[in-house]
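user:
I keep going back and forth on a fold encoding question. Separate attempts, laid side by side, tell us more than any discussion would. Would you put together a sequence-and-structure record for a protein of your own picking? Write it directly below this note and I will take it from there.

assistant:
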Amino acid sequence: MRVWEATVGVDIRIGVSKDGSAPFGATDQPGDDSGPSNGIVRTNDIITYDVNVNVVGGTAENETFTLTAPEGTEWLQLPTECTGGGSRINGRQLICNLGSLTNQSQVVQPSLRVTGAKQNGDTVQVTGTVTADNATTPNVPAPNPPITRVSAAPRFDLVKDRFEHRSVAAAAPDGTSGRVFYYPIAIENTPRDPSIPHRLGAEQLRSPLSFTDDISQILEGVASPDARLYTWGKDGPGCWLPSYEKFGAGDQPGGAGGGPAFVTDSGAVSCAQSASGANIDVTLTGTDTSATHVPSRALWNSLPAGNGYVASIMLAIWIPDTDLRAAADATGGVVRMKDTLTGFSPTSTSGQTNVDPPANNSYQMSNKLSMGLGYDKNFVLTDNDRYYAPGSQVLAYVIARNQGLGVVDPQIACDVFDKTQMTIVAARADPEPAGTKVQYAAQPTRQTPQQMATQTCGDTDGPWYDGITAVPGGAAAVGRVRVVGPVAGQSARYLNMEFRIRDDARLDDRVRNYGAYQDANTNNGNWTLTGSNPDLADCCLADYLLLSPVLARIVKKTVDPGTNASTTQNKDQIVTAGTTAKFALYPSLTSGGKPPGPQDVTVVDTLPKYLQYVSGSATREPSSVVENPDGTTTITWVYPQTVPGTSIAPITFEVRADPAAPAGDLVNKAVIGTPLDTSAEKERTAQRQLTVVEGKGLIVSKRVVKPTVIIGDRMEYTLTADNRTSSALSTIDIIDVLPHRGDNRNPASGFTGRAELAAAPTPTPAGGTLRYTKAAPNGISLNPNAASNGPGGTSTWCVEADFGTTGCPTGLAEATAFRYDKPGPIAPSAGVSLGISLRNTDQAAGDVYTNRAGAAAPEIALPVESPDVPVRVVAGCAGDFVWLDEKRTGVQSGNDPAVPDVTVTLTGTDDLGGQVRRTTKTGKDGKYRFGNLRPGTYTATFTQPIGYTFTTKNAGTDPASNSVAGSNGAGDPFTLNKDTTDSGALIGVNCDLNQDAGLIRQHQPTPPTPGPSPPTPSPSPPTPTPTPPTPTPTPPTPTTSVPPSDPVLPETGPNTVWPGLLAAGMIIAGIAIFLVARRRRDT
């Protein structure tokens, strides 16, 4: 274990940045809060602290502060600055290791939630200490930590009229017939002001809670003398907490357990009735009324957004049929019922009385003893997504609802579908009382939507079979399903079906499903058919699906600190402007039974304005990152050739909230797509938001004017320093060190040449002093208060008037950094901005120029720095191949020999009017390339080698295979354009790599064959002359490029002269010998 020498001093201060979040109320009365800086915080609201730590005397190793919060509070999350070992939240303690800090201060802004366990008038005080491995005084306490007072009041509403009420037939223990009426009841935490979330300022209630169900007017304004608690049912003795095991209304939350569909804990419920017909007393003991958690949905349905349910119970009352008939006889068959909750006036934990609004306490309903049924027909969709792939399984149902009190028997519910689009797998009735049958019938041929929409399921519409396999032709032949049987009063019966989308289903057609029904009490006993347009099948006893060969879907989450994509709980995150957060994307590609081949999957994530992508943070490197003109950023990933059904690894990446970001929610949107997925974009979209809390103090931000520039353009930045304190600053001092190689920024700058100021920075408002230095950039501190930036420091700062004097730059081009000192007073919410313009005469495509600045003010203990912001340089290009057209077709065949050492000249005019003329030669592979081109119109001209001509120009239909050179070697003019996104953001400049040239060898002249010579008289016999042997020709060696010895492409330079002369001499000598020998033979 390393032992550090105690050499540095550390210190800590704790302040309150904000003691609450908007929206705020008009007063500071109990349960209310008028603003973020008044020393008052509501329950379930957030306090953001300024924890200011520093180090003097050197480098503090593992500088760590520890905060301890009081009971009834909880830390939201570990700040992103806490990256050192041991950083964690341990109950009410927050431990933050900042790593190594050198002679600097740092502000961290942890957020603390005041839970509903706090009472009105309680106080919140966070204490803290700071230490370091080498601190001279360890565990230094924070002096005088601030105290914040809690504001809370009880605001709970007893609710009875909001949920679905049902009744079922049930006999009393002695056999008396009657009905059980189920009454869902809830307690909801409500806001005083509808514009303020209900949790803010809520105070818990003292246990137990009690109220009375007044049934004195339950039947036609009078009591039911025999009405009593339904104590003999299976769910409980007259009252219970609803759940998936115990009966609850579909739109009612569960009674305990937390989670999306349940309140935290309704407590133990009991109910009592002194006698039949008497009112019922209900008591809840141990109810959790903190409102820290509320359900987001009901047991079987949705809940209104922003609900505040803390308790949910079910009350069951049994009434004999004799009482119901007596009430119905007096009103022509209608039973009018009403009961009211009274006596709910609990006190809060601080002794305040809860006033229950009475508007929701009564429930009234009218029931007929006998009435028509209601029906519905739907597919069961996942996340409301209508798209399915062929081969997928899908569920559907037809429901019959009996709103009357009597049984309807028989009732027929019918389902009709296109057997050429989907096949029945299974069907069942739920519930399935005695006498219920599910039956199947064939569909002889494919039916039109109009034919299917008018089909019925009567006995004569069969034949009907009791099983799928009993139908001639089996499942593939079935086109109708029906259920026949009774439907009990005040209940519903489902016909649930499972289908499989056929592998050969028509992708361009809807998968339609129609319903029909018939019973004696509805529509005069006639069949009721769909009221939808048959082609649409989009309502009224009809539903539809859409088909896509593959389904690309995406989920988006926040990654909680200390977790990863696999372990995150996707908690709502609050980030301070200037800090980072992490997102996770979970793409998927699925299909049905016969998946198509591999697909390119594209994921596009759009960051809103004020969220910036942290370069290099993604677990999968993006294909592109584009900053758009409107301030948004588009990040694109491509998964090439992905097989449907295979797992796709999630992506995590970091974002930084701009230091200048205003408070509020920033929504991040991701869209996934693939060429074969025809589903709507909304089905392929996921969103997640971050809540941004404004920073406090001196805030420095930097943005680029254009994140991508064309070669030759200037790199421009806007630097802003804002006063986010509550008082004026006497001055703001800013230092900006220009991008340089080895600057270790993110991303690191990388370029040839040197980045220099194109002009003096332009401050707004004016009035400050600009100074410059030529010190080595790696040695310049961004802290204006650093000793190196003071008198006698290593960085000498000079005004323009001193340029050229000792220690000063000779001009702007030699400056490596600039400094701007803006005198005050600088009022709260005011600041200064500077426009910065850089240039580099040696720019090249791919250059990156990343800028960063620092600032300080006398009233702010700590210096601050801006985020890194890069500018990238792009350019176009032209090229690229010269080949030997041996086949003389004018079209490349793919294995043509390359021609090296051919001169190519590029001429033209760029978009700025500049004249361009460049020359290069082809390499051994016949390739050439002109890079670093601006948009413009250009021409490539090829110098014709000796012994060659150009092949036919533009002979084929594919520009990539043609020759562009005319007989004079010049191609046609071509244009390079900017490449931009749909929003106009620059991506790059395009390249034209189709400027190819084909060459053809010229025919070599063949020497003429000498004719016979006239005989020459000879006075004496000729002297025999030996005949030289005939040389054997050597076959040429195959090659992909023209041989270097080819006389039409001579090398140049001193080494090529003598071999050439020697070869020429040998050729002449050979011809002479040949002619002499021939003449002698002829003679």
About this structure: The chain has three helices and 69 strands. Residues 875-1001 form a domain with the Immunoglobulin-like fold (CATH 2.60.40.10).
